[in-house]
Automatic annotation (TrEMBL):
Keyword Membrane recorded: yes
Organism of derivation: Arcicella rosea
CDD domains the UniProt entry points to: MFS_ExuT_GudP_like
Transmembrane segments: 51-70, 77-105, 162-184, 228-249, 269-290, 302-319, 357-383, 395-417
This protein's name: ACS family hexuronate transporter-like MFS transporter
Domain of life the protein comes from: Bacteria
Keyword Membrane in annotation: yes
Lineage start: Bacteria, Pseudomonadati, Bacteroidota, Cytophagia, Cytophagales
Length: 426
C-alpha cells in the first residue's frame, strides 16, 4: 500500500529531523566546552547553572511566543524565522567575552529554539494521520539524540584544532544551510504539487477539518481546558530531566569517572545513541497498538506508563563502581525519556484540533522550560554543596533519585486531568 501512496510525507519528517538535530547540536556544544570555559571565565557550578537557567527562561518565552505565532502565520514562515534566529545567536556566542555576554547569547539562542517543537509538531499534525503521528514525531525527535551524538564527535576536534570560538561558529552556521532546503521543499499538503492524490487522501483520512484558514485559539481559552493542563504538567515534570542529561551528563562522567572531555567520548555517544532507538521505538510502539485496534488514547497511555517505569532503575546509578555500569542505567533512562517524549508530544495533536496544536505545544513546552529553570537551581545547589565537601558524586546520586520518580508522577497527574481520554472540541 505504501508504494501506491507515495512517501513524500517522510521527506517532510527528514526536514524536521535535521532541524531538531541542529537545534540540539547548538545547545549541547556548551556542555562539552564547559571544562574549558570554566577555566577561561572562572565559572562555578552555580555560574554554569545560571547560564542554563538563562537559556531555559528564554526558551520558555520563545515557546510561548512561537506557539501562537506559528499558528497565526503558518509553519513554513514561522519555522524559517525560528531557525534563522537561533542560528544567528549560536554564531554570535563565539564573540562572548564574559559570563554576562554568554548569558545574553544563550538567552537569544533559547528564544529562537522555542520555535522548533511547536512548528515541528504542527507540521506532523498537518502531514500525518493520527496512527502515524507518534512514529513521525519519534523520528524527528530522534534528531535531538543525533545532535547530542554528533556534538561529542565534532566539538573536541574543533576545540583542539581551532579553539572554542570556532566550535560555536560552525555549529551555529549549519542552520543556514537547512533554511535553503526548507524554503524550497516545504508546503502544506493541499498546496504541494509533488504529492500524489492517494497520499493526500491518506493524510486526510482522519477526516479532521482543515483549520489552516481559521484564527488560532487564544491562550485564555486553552488554559480553561483540563486537557491543556494534562499536557502542561506532563512536560513540566519530565522535560527538566532531559535538560539534566544534556547539560550535566558530560561533567558527571568527567568528575565521577575521570572521563576526558577533550577527546571524543564513546560513553556519551552510547548514551545518546540509545536515546535514538528510544525515540523511534517509542513512537512505533503506540502506533503499532493503534494499528492493532487499540483506541488512540489507551495506546498512548499504556506506552507512556511502560516508559515511565523504565526510567526508575536510574536510582541505582549511585551503586555503580565503573563508568559502563552507569552508562547502561543512564542509557535506559534517557532512551525511555525520548520514547515518552515522542508520545507526550503526540497527545497534543490527539486531543486538540490542528488550529490549536502549536499553541498547546508552546504552552506545554513553556511549562517544561519553567521546570528546566527550577531544576538547575536544585542541581547547582546540590553539586556546589557536595563539591565543597569533596563528595560531588553524592550530589549526583540525589539528582538521579529525583529523575527516577518524575515520570510516574507525571503519568499519574496526566491521567488525573484526562481520565476518560476525551478529545477537545473548540
Amino acid at each position: 500500500m505504501e508504494n501506491t501512496l507515495g512517501k513524500y510525507r517522510w521527506r517532510v519528517v527528514a526536514l524536521l529531523f535535521f532541524a531538531t538535530t541542529i537545534s540540539y547540536l547548538d545547545r549541547q556544544v556548551i556542555a562539552l566546552l564547559k571544562p574549558t570555559l570554566e577555566k577561561e571565565f572562572s565559572w562555578t557550578e552555580s555560574d554554569y547553572s545560571n547560564l542554563v537557567m538563562a537559556f531555559q527562561a528564554a526558551y520558555a518565552v520563545g515557546l510561548m511566543i512561537f506557539g501562537g505565532f506559528i499558528d497565526k502565520i503558518g509553519t513554513k514562515l514561522g519555522y524559517a524565522i525560528a531557525v534563522a534566529w537561533w542560528s544567528t545567536a549560536g554564531v554570535l556566542t563565539a564573540f562572548a567575552g564574559s559570563t554576562f555576554s554568554f548569558g545574553v547569547f544563550r538567552s537569544l539562542l533559547g528564544l529562537g529554539e522555542g520555535g522548533n517543537f511547536p512548528a515541528a509538531i504542527k507540521t506532523v499534525a498537518e502531514w500525518f494521520p493520527k496512527k502515524e503521528r507518534a512514529l513521525a514525531t519519534g523520528i524527528f525527535n530522534s534528531g535531538a539524540n543525533i545532535g547530542a551524538v554528533a556534538a561529542p564527535l565534532m566539538v573536541p576536534f574543533i576545540l583542539a584544532t581551532f579553539g572554542w570560538q570556532v566550535a560555536f561558529i560552525i555549529t551555529g552556521g549549519v542552520g543556514f544551510i537547512w533554511l535553503i532546503f526548507w524554503w524550497i521543499g516545504y508546503e502544506l499538503p493541499a498546496r504541494q504539487n509533488k504529492l500524489s492524490k492517494e497520499e493526500l487522501l491518506y493524510i486526510q483520512s482522519d477526516n479532521e477539518p482543515d483549520t489552516s484558514h481559521e484564527e488560532p485559539v487564544k491562550w485564555i481559552t486553552l488554559l480553561s481546558i483540563r486537557q491543556t493542563w494534562s499536557f502542561i504538567f506532563g512536560k513540566m515534570l519530565t522535560d527538566p530531566i532531559w535538560w539534566f542529561f544534556l547539560y550535566w551528563l558530560p561533567s558527571y562522567f568527567s568528575e565521577t569517572f575521570q572521563l576526558d572531555l577533550k577527546k571524543p567520548s564513546l560513553e556519551l555517544i552510547v548514551v545518546y545513541t540509545a536515546t535514538t532507538f528510544g525515540s523511534i521505538g517509542g513512537g512505533y510502539i503506540s502506533g503499532y497498538l493503534i494499528k492493532k485496534g487499540w483506541p488512540v488514547f489507551k495506546a498512548r497511555k499504556t506506552a507512556m506508563l511502560s516508559f515511565a517505569i523504565a526510567v526508575v532503575p536510574i536510582v541505582f546509578a549511585q551503586y555503580c563502581t565503573n563508568i559502563w555500569q552507569a552508562v547502561v542505567l543512564i542509557s535506559l533512562a534517557a532512551a525511555a525519556h525520548q520514547a515518552w517524549s515522542a508520545n507526550i508530544f503526540t497527545t497534543a495533536s490527539d486531543m486538540f484540533p490542528k488550529k490549536a496544536v502549536s499553541s498547546v505545544v508552546g504552552l506545554g513546552g513553556m511549562a517544561g522550560s519553567v521546570g528546566g529553570i527550577l531544576f538547575p537551581l536544585i542541581v547547582g545547589y546540590l553539586l556546589d554543596t557536595y563539591k565543597s565537601q569533596g563528595n560531588i558524586t553524592a550530589g549526583y546520586n540525589i539528582i538521579f533519585i529525583l529523575c527516577g520518580g518524575a515520570y510516574l508522577l507525571a503519568w499519574g497527574i496526566m491521567h488525573l486531568f484526562n481520565p476518560r481520554n476525551e478529545q477537545v472540541v473548540i
